[in-house]
Structures are given as C-alpha cells and as structure tokens.
Amino acid sequence: MSTLRKPKFVILLVIVAAGSFLLGSAANRTIYAADNIYSSTKLLMGVLNLVNDNYVEEVEPGELIYAAIDGMLEVLDPHSSFLSKESFAEMGERFSGKFYGIGIEFDVLDGFLYVISVIDGSPSEAVGLQSGDRIVRIDGESAIGIKHDEVRQKLRGEKGTRVDVTIDRPGVDDRFDVTITRDRIPIRSVRTSIMLEDHTGYIQLIRFAKTTSRELEAALDKLQQDGMERLILDLRGNSGGYLDQAVEVSSKFIPEGHVIVKTIGRNRSSNQTFKSLSGVNHRGMPLVILLDHRSASASEIVAGAVQDWDRGVIAGTRSFGKGLVQTLFAEPHLTDGSALKLTTARYYTPSGRMIQRDYKNKSFEEYIEGSFTESGEAVHDGESASAPEAERPVFTTAGGRTVYGDGGISPDVQLKTPKRSYPFVIGKYRGWVPFDRACFEFANTYGVTRQDLKDDFGTFLNEFEIEDAMLEAFKAQVRDSGLSFTDDEFNEDLDVIELQLKRSLARNLWGDEEASRVAASGDEQLQQAMQLFYSHEMLVQQ
Question: Per-residue pLDDT averaged across 442-466, rounded?
Fold first, then answer.
C-alpha cells in the first residue's frame, strides 16, 4: 500500500492560511486541526507500511485499517462505530422492515431444521407450513446437519423465485414436498398484540424500524375493535431504532404540538426539537408503559415524553440510558459500501433530562454489563441499587410531578422481579441449546399425543397444568441431550419450566397469539402492571 501523498495537504494548508486574514482565530484553529490531522495520518501510514513490509507473516492491509478505525472510535463513546459493507447492508435489512424469503422463524436442533413459527401472511403460511415441521431437504439437497447461516442463504432470495422443501411433520407418516415462492417478509416491530382481561390491551414492541408506527396503529385499531379501553405498551428489551418512529409512536398518545424530544450537539444542525404530530386517535386512552434495563434509545424517548407530559404511568425498572444521537455517514463520504455511525448529539426529554448516562472512564464491557445488579436493576455512576433518588438531578413534569435525571428513565412505579439464580434454565443452559428451544422440541412431540386439548383454548389457559409425567419425560429428554443437572436445580426453576412448557404447547396446538396469552399469565411484572389501572392515582383519575 502506498503512503499518503503530502501535496494535497500542503495545498489545503495554503488555502487555509490565505483565509486566515479574513477569519482570524477561527482560521488559526482550522490550520492547527489540519496540521494535526496531517501529522497523525502520516504516523498511521508509517506504521501501516512498516507492518506491511516487515511483520513476520503476510498481513491484509484492509484488515489493519479497519482495526485502526475501530480503535480510533473506541476513544469517543460506546455507540460510535464503523460498519463494514456487509454489516451496513445487514443493518439496513434489520431496520428496513422487510426482506425476501419464505417467512418462518427457525432453529437448528440436534442437526434438524425446525420451523419454530410461521409468519402471518407469508409464503410459508400460504402453503400450510406449521410450527414443529422439520425441513429435511432444500432444493433436493439434505438439510440434516445444516448450519444457521446456510439456512438463511438457501431460504432467502429474490421475490418471485421458488424453493422446493421436503417436510417431516409429527403425526404424519410420510414426508411430503412443498414448493414455496419467495416474497416480501415483514420484519415485525409488534411481537405481541393481545387482549387481557377487563378490556385491557397489551402490545409488545421489540424495535423501532421503518414500519413500527404503521404496525402499532394496526394493532391499536384491532384491539379497540375487540373492546380495548386501556393499554399496556411493553418496551422491555426494546433497544431502540429510528428517531422518527419514536416521535410517531409518542404522537399516538401525546397531543399535537407538544415537544417529544430535543437533540443538542456541537454543530448547529444537530440542535433540533421534535414535536408530536397531528391526526392521531388514541390520545385519551389510559396508558401504562413497561420498561426494564434493556429499554434504550427510542424506547426512552417515548417513555420520557409520556412521563414528562403526565400522559401515562411508567412502570418496571430504570431504563438503560442510551441517549446519544448517531448520524450515518456512507456514500459519498465513504465509497467502498461501508458506513460510519458517529455520535453527533444527545437526546433530552421535554423537561430537559439528558437520557444518556455516564460512560467516561469505563470499558465497553463495564458500560454494558457493569451497570446492573444481578437482578437486572440499573445501577448508574457508582450508586447502589437502593441509593435515594433525591441525590439525582430533579426535574418537573407538566403537571408538577418530580422526575429524575442522571441517565435513563426511572419508573413512576417500580415493579422489580425477584432476585433468583435460575440454576437450571440459565445456569445449566448457558452455552447450550437455548432452554425455550428445548421446551419447543418437547412440546412438538407431546402435542401430537394431546390433540384433544385443541377443543377449547380458554379451558387450556385457565385449567391445564403440567403433569408430573410430563416433567419426568422432559427431564429424560434433557438428560438424553447430554445436559446433566440435579433434581434440586430442576425443582428450583419448576415454575419457569412449567410456564415455558405450557407456552410451547400452546404455540404447537394453536399459534403465537395463544402462546403469548399463556406467557402473559405468568409474567409477574405484567400482572402487577394491570392492577395499576385500578390503584394508581393518575390512571384512576383519567
């Protein structure tokens, strides 16, 4: 690789120097910055050439440059990052709200490719694929022993192209062939949209992608038709996404023209105020928003706006505190298909709270992992989990309530989950086949023998219990897979195991919505949140 040519920088310095007669000290700062960039770049290229010419093994200069860029960005903040061409394309797909394929959620268990669930309205649903099906051949080639990346490569493709698969279905003696025509597959933001008892709707948002607002509107409309009079919006585990979608989601609940979020940065162009939009029809509905320590970015924008305008009750645990605005620089700045995601501003709630928590003098691991207790409760800037909120900066909502700054969104009502070690479902399954997949595999086999349960989901939800014989059979399956555990470890997590087995069985017999209703029945935080509509002063008054 050739070294950087100096004449271009010389020309730049001459131009800047000439302008200094007009711009004074500003030009002097520009000259100083340009000189620093030139000398630092010269040093970098010198090291690169020495490594390239003299290292004991042959190296790829491009890999060294990428590593140098990563190292440079680590000095800035935890969220500025460089995206290779491949990573940039994958990010675009993840948040664009669509890709082309056959429309299944899958996993590979013991070498077999299982259909975990079928996406509504997808090509796989059109040809009758079901949860629990095993795909054993793809386009005439065996799929037994296939890897996850190979599945995506073989099943995704251009719209209108076809793929032939051979299905092995539990309870069906012979394998059968199906031809599936690939089409657009939505990447869903709304994972769950169901009615709970007493006119309470429940919507779980898992990301803020391009289609989030539209998906949420459709879910709200459907639930209102089903009798919804109040809503629990679950943002637990939602790490964020597009800012415009956070504004649109907030606008569904906050009156037009109210500030949703402000961005403030070094450049004037980074300073913006985003207000709620017009034409939204859900602003009077009593609202609870659930947060946890994994709720970040766009999730915190929505929760912060709802809290500051006293529009609903925020429940759960303190959110992550990711309030840095990243601007994406790709073409024409970078010409090889890569992109730079660079922090250019910070988010502030309507009351003036900065969402971002402190990250200075911390490694990335300390920033991500070291800020929470074992129970998942957020711990910020050296405070203990029980540190009084009075020690944090105080702000005031539109209605005069006190809220707190210093990073993240603190809930109005704390709904903590019990501190547990989970010796079986986490301790034994760490680094193993995921626990929920083991339950799916068991339910897939057991469901074939219990088709009688399909007659009445309501009876199943309210009365069906996991029997001792089922638990013993599940134990045997787990031990046969090579995982060793004690009965004490198993019994300590018995409530979680029983709920997950029942949820997996509901998905096998009915589908995702019924599985979600089973999961909701055992979600302690969600059940507590439902009671807030009757006990929390702000909600009772609405």
Answer: 89
Number of H helices and E strands in the chain, helices first, is 18, 21
pLDDT tens-place string over residues 169-224: 887 888 999 899 999 887 789 999 999 987 999 999 999 988 999 999 999 999 99
Q: Please pick, among 297, 299, 351, 516, the residue that the annotation labels catalytic.
A: 297
* DSSP-assigned beta bridge partners for residue 313: 288
- How confident is the model at residue 23, as a pLDDT? 42
Look at residue 471 and tell me whether its pLDDT is greater than 60: yes
The two three-digit tokens of residue 274, written as one number = 């985003």
308 assigned to active site: yes
Q: CA angle at residue 199 from 298 to 513, to 5 degrees? A: 65
> Is 412 an annotated catalytic residue?
no
- What is the distance between the alpha carbons of residues 346 and 328, in angstroms, rounded to a whole number? 15
The one-character DSSP state at 452 is G
pLDDT tens by residue, 3-17: 333 333 333 333 333
Domains held by the chain: number: 4
Distances (CA, A) of 184 to 90, 107, 180: 16, 21, 13
Query: Where is the domain boundary, 151, 186, 221?
Result: 186
Full residue range of the structural domain in which residue 140 is found: 98-186
Helix (H, G, I), strand (E, B) or coil at 95: helix
Q: Among the options 234, 308, 412, 512, which is catalytic? A: 308
Full-model pTM: 0.77
Same domain flag for 301 and 377: yes
Instruction: Note whether 372 and 283 are same-domain residues.
Output: yes
Phi, psi of 472 (to 5 degrees): -65, -40
Classify residue 536: in a domain, yes or no.
Answer: no
Annotated catalytic residue 299: no
Choosing from 252, 322, 341, 502, the catalytic residue is 322
